[in-house]
Automatic annotation (TrEMBL):
Span of domain Immunoglobulin: 11-87, 98-174, 185-254, 260-338
InterPro entries the UniProt entry points to: Ig-like_dom_sf, Ig-like_fold, Ig_sub, Ig_sub2
Annotated Immunoglobulin subtype domain residues: 17-75, 104-162, 191-249, 268-326
Pfam families associated with the record: Ig_2 (PF13895), Ig_3 (PF13927)
Residue ranges, annotated region (Disordered): 1-22, 166-187
The protein, known as: B-cell receptor CD22-like
Length: 340
């Protein structure tokens, strides 16, 4: 009689994993004995004319529907199908980033993990040197990316066959300069003739370009982050600022000791005389008046006044100018009161 519809089996039974040896077997009850032919659905080329179709190392491309027919001189059986589903670990685990060009602070950024796997992979996202996953979704999204998000990211794709990871993808978030900070070295009080350095710093990506100016002077003093004075002078007093694109900050005047004060004398009608002490200093000087060979100050004001000067007031007078940086004295000024 003609062959009955054949039965088909797979060995080993159960899940079929990539790279394993697999055998499909076709059998049919017939007399005389059947001859067998194996086909893959949608392919009319015979794969085997034996009762068995063997794969020494089965691959994902071998997945599909197979069928065999049994035939003898009395006829050909109807075909019997068997499905082969090859399971395999994730392949080609890759990351795509949107947008793909520059990443700017505050922008939206999405990283997408892709892989070829059977069964479908589950995804996790990590930042380099981080132990905990950032996300267990296929996509890692930043609605408003920040500089602190810069770093190396990778994803893992895992199914019950294996776990694989992608190459690392670098995220470098660009951001405008933060308001700069200015420091002075040495810190504390600035004295004339010492070396002084003003330093401007700002957090920015890409790195900032600095320019130093003195207030009310548009000529750049330095195009470096530092402005240095080897021997600072009183003429260097003033207000300085550095610019970083749109931002600036001011540094206030360096202090200096009083210059040697000068004395001016102004006689008035009726025998009144006024001596005035003057000095250039920062901070402003405090004044004291002395008569030569006298220990105690005659006045702690800028002016020393005689409302009705007398011969006994004749002598050498000088003033001192003092601030927290130093103390200087004037040349002596002679007062010679003539009797009328």
């Amino acid at each position: 009689d003609a062959p009955k519809p054949p039965s088909v089996s797979v060995s080993p039974s159960g899940e079929i994993k990539e790279g394993t040896s697999v055998t499909l077997t076709c059998s049919s009850d017939a007399n005389p004995a059947s001859a067998y032919v194996w086909y893959k659905i949608n392919n009319q080329t015979p794969l085997s004319t034996d009762s068995q179709l063997s794969f020494k190392s089965i691959q994902p491309a071998d997945s599909g529907e197979y069928y065999c027919t049994a035939e003898n001189r009395l006829g050909t059986s109807t075909p019997t199908n068997i499905s082969v589903d090859v399971k395999y670990a994730p392949k080609f685990v890759s990351v795509t980033v949107s947008p793909s060009n520059e990443f700017r602070e505050g922008g939206a950024v999405t990283l997408t993990c892709s892989s070829d796997a059977n069964p479908a992979a589950q995804y996790s996202w990590y930042k380099k040197n981080g132990q905990k996953p950032l996300s267990n979704e296929r996509q890692l999204s930043f609605s408003s990316i920040q500089p602190s998000d810069s770093g190396e990211y990778y994803c893992t794709a895992q199914n019950k066959v294996a776990r694989k990871r992608s190459e690392s993808t670098s995220i470098d978030v660009k951001y405008a300069p933060k308001p700069p900070s200015v420091s002075v070295s040495p810190s504390g009080e600035i004295k004339e003739n010492i070396s002084v350095t003003l330093t401007c710093s700002s957090d920015a990506n890409p790195a900032s370009a600095y320019v130093w100016y003195k207030m009310n002077n548009r000529t750049p003093l330095s195009t470096d982050s530092q402005l240095s004075f080897k021997s600072i002078q009183s003429a260097d007093s003033g207000e300085y600022y550095c610019t970083i694109q749109c931002c600036h900050i001011s540094l206030f005047s360096p202090a200096d000791a009083p210059k040697p004060p000068s004395v001016s004398v102004r006689p008035s009608e009726g025998g009144a005389v006024t001596l005035t002490c003057s000095s250039d200093a920062n901070p402003a000087a405090q004044y004291s008046w002395y008569k030569k060979n006298g220990q105690k100050p005659l006045s702690n004001e800028r002016q020393l006044s005689f409302s009705s000067i007398q011969p006994s007031d004749s002598g050498q007078y000088y003033c001192t100018a003092q601030n927290k940086v130093g103390r200087k004295r004037s040349e002596s000024t002679s007062i010679d009161v003539k009797c009328g």
